[in-house]
Design goal:
By secondary structure, this protein is mostly beta strands. It is built from no helices and 7 strands. It has one domain. A hairpin with a 5-residue loop joins strand 3 and strand 4.
Length: about 90
């Protein structure tokens, strides 16, 4: 029997050369449950490293208000970021 799963995502968010917040609205329980992925102009995806490339701020009550924000430098306008749950790995 196969069990299907769906990666929960927010974005993509276009690059603008500044540190920016990426809102997400899926329930997580720890910063490490969140992954930020960078996509370059050739559509090559790179998974960023928590605390090195991005940080996470979770909403206090994940039952009432799931999600939070990921914070990362957006880079050039031709790069995109998206926030995903850790299940992607």
């Amino acid at each position: 029997m196969t069990i299907s799963s769906t990666t929960r995502k927010a974005g993509p968010f276009d690059g603008n050369n500044v540190l920016d917040a990426f809102p997400f609205a899926f329930k997580v329980f720890a910063d490490s449950d969140v992954v930020v992925v960078k996509t370059d102009p050739d559509d090559i995806e790179t998974t960023l490293t928590l605390t090195t490339d991005y940080t996470v701020s979770l909403n206090a009550d994940q039952d009432t208000s799931p999600g939070g924000h990921g914070y990362a430098a957006l880079g050039a306008g031709d790069h995109r970021r998206q926030v995903e749950d850790e299940e992607r790995k």
